[in-house]
Amino acid sequence: MDMTLTLIAGATTLALTVLFGWLGARPSNPAKGPRMAPWRPMMMATAVATLLLAAHALNLLGFKTGDPRY
């Protein structure tokens, strides 16, 4: 992936992380029934994707983020 696509994907996953965190932090409403979407695991998955994309962007800029022996 080139830098443009990496930054677009990173911004998208960051926005989804914030959205899912907000949705997961809302108080539950027993009158509406249980929540059917697992907001917190979805937030964690997109947060991991954001971190991986940030590492990829740093690698594209020339920084080494992997094992220092190589």
Structure, explained:
The chain has helices at about 5-25, 40-60. It is mainly α and about 70 residues long. The chain has one domain (about 5-25, about 40-60). Helix 1 (about 5-25) runs antiparallel to helix 2 (about 40-60). It is elongated and about 55 Å long. The mean pLDDT is about 95.
Write the layout of secondary structure elements.
Layout: H1 3-25, H2 39-60
Q: How would you sum up this structure in a few lines?
A:
The protein is mostly helical. Helix content is 64%, strand content 0%.
Output mean pLDDT: 93
Helical proportion?
A: 55-70%
Shape: elongated
Number of strands: 0
Terminal CA distance: 22 Å
**SSE run:** HH
Protein traits:
70 residues; mainly alpha; 2 helices
